[in-house]
Amino acid sequence: MKILSVASEVYPLIKTGGLADVAGALPPALARRGIETRVLMPGYGPVMARLEGARSQVVFEYDALLGVPARLVSARLDGLDLILIDAPSLYHRSGGPYVDAAGIDHGDNWHRFGALSRAGADICAGIIEGFRPDVVHAHDWQAGLVPAYLRYSGISCPSVMTIHNIAFQGQFSAAVLGGLYLPPHAMALDGVEYHGGVGFLKAGLANASAITTVSPTYAEEIRTPAFGMGLDGLINARAPVLRGIVNGIDTGVWDPATDPILPATFSADDLEGRRANRRALEERFRLDHDDEPLFVVISRLTHQKGIDLLAETTGDLVAEGAKLAVLGTGDPALENAFAGAAARHAGRVGVVIGYDEQLAHTMQGGADGILIPSRFEPCGLTQLYGLRYGAVPIVARTGGLADTVIDANTAALNAGVATGVQFLPVDAAGLRHAIRQAVRLFRQPGTWDGLRVNGMRSDVSWDRSAALYADLYKSLIPVASGHHA
């Protein structure tokens, strides 16, 4: 079976969030099941620079890909089989994949990711000699036009559309339709039209053979107005083809027993190394050296992530005797709030504004618990890293957080299966209660290590989820072949 995965970011080549982790980790997990995956992504400047000395070849040349000269370059990097769109006018930019150096969206993102989707559909039509995928797997709005191009070009190939976060939808003016080389009749309710403009994610959801999202609970939540972000009606109409498949993590990259980034390695059978990691963490964040509970946050500092609730309850956390280390960037008001908290509670609260992958590993490997108070969380990966590294997750009961963390209620504690603390409602009072409960459990000898070890022994790999994706792909292929309806 051959799969074409279409994604705008892929770890470790380029990453802004969890989408990159999934796009990078799922193909190797599928390969262990005998499924060949090639990943189509934009040839951003830093990615193309990586081709120096790598095995690569031009496999197709466009005179014009949505009006722009482009080449498709096949390469193998970081264990991934890639197809890169070499179109410097689209992808060689300062800033990130989606925004410029000032943090403002590139004005032609419709063109940049329309080209990504168009190329995905063309590969399904067989433009690359020796590779014609059985299924195309499109990730998030940036690949949302793949199913639409398949439909309007008459290309027969089943498609899977995965929603990583329904809040990001790729909505653009109707004026871009001509530049996307889509026919006028595509501006229809069952096509690409959305509130009078072109909706990339909406187009994918309307036209894909199957829809997945990144946890079973989130699959239910997005069918409601509270979580559906205006697309709940369409998602309910397509509910028969919707599935929630929880993300995994790359347990080779994230392995506390072998992680070269950690000051000290450790395992579920020998937690001693965590002590050195904790001390390193206290040094980095200028926190007191004591044996009180140390909680961390590794997050975008935004309303979605519930970080305003944590800012509101930081004083309560300190009053409980605990310490807090925050790593993240985002809303300037929240950045300032935590800087202020660190100044008020010197030695108890520490903040690093920015993102540092290496520091994130040390935080997971040294913290007692990780706080994730998200208002909505499609899947979440930081709680999976926390489970793997023994940083007990304290999470809002929503989306993938609800699906991956077993709450330390009385029944779960008695059964010996609890792995963390869940809370509801997702407000300051709920978070305050969860922090108090976590501190109380921490102070019960043996209980916290029990949660820690349960989490470290739980399966957070891609293996089970890759099996579910493999089954889904297989179920779609006979439909395309006309073997059954």
Automatic annotation (TrEMBL):
<dbReference type="GO" id="GO:0005829">
    <property type="term" value="C:cytosol"/>
</dbReference>
<comment type="similarity">
    <text>Belongs to the glycosyltransferase 1 family. Bacterial/plant glycogen synthase subfamily.</text>
</comment>
<dbReference type="InterPro" id="IPR013534">
    <property type="entry name" value="Starch_synth_cat_dom"/>
</dbReference>
<feature type="domain" description="Glycosyl transferase family 1">
    <location>
        <begin position="283"/>
        <end position="413"/>
    </location>
</feature>
<dbReference type="GO" id="GO:0005978">
    <property type="term" value="P:glycogen biosynthetic process"/>
</dbReference>
<comment type="pathway">
    <text>Glycan biosynthesis; glycogen biosynthesis.</text>
</comment>
<keyword id="KW-0320">Glycogen biosynthesis</keyword>
<dbReference type="Pfam" id="PF08323">
    <property type="entry name" value="Glyco_transf_5"/>
</dbReference>
<dbReference type="GO" id="GO:0009011">
    <property type="term" value="F:alpha-1,4-glucan glucosyltransferase (ADP-glucose donor) activity"/>
</dbReference>
<feature type="binding site">
    <location>
        <position position="15"/>
    </location>
    <ligand>
        <name>ADP-alpha-D-glucose</name>
    </ligand>
</feature>
<dbReference type="InterPro" id="IPR011835">
    <property type="entry name" value="GS/SS"/>
</dbReference>
<keyword id="KW-0328">Glycosyltransferase</keyword>
<dbReference type="Pfam" id="PF00534">
    <property type="entry name" value="Glycos_transf_1"/>
</dbReference>
<dbReference type="InterPro" id="IPR001296">
    <property type="entry name" value="Glyco_trans_1"/>
</dbReference>
<feature type="domain" description="Starch synthase catalytic">
    <location>
        <begin position="2"/>
        <end position="236"/>
    </location>
</feature>
<comment type="function">
    <text>Synthesizes alpha-1,4-glucan chains using ADP-glucose.</text>
</comment>
<protein>
    <recommendedName>
        <fullName>Glycogen synthase</fullName>
        <ecNumber>2.4.1.21</ecNumber>
    </recommendedName>
</protein>
<keyword id="KW-0808">Transferase</keyword>
<dbReference type="GO" id="GO:0004373">
    <property type="term" value="F:alpha-1,4-glucan glucosyltransferase (UDP-glucose donor) activity"/>
</dbReference>
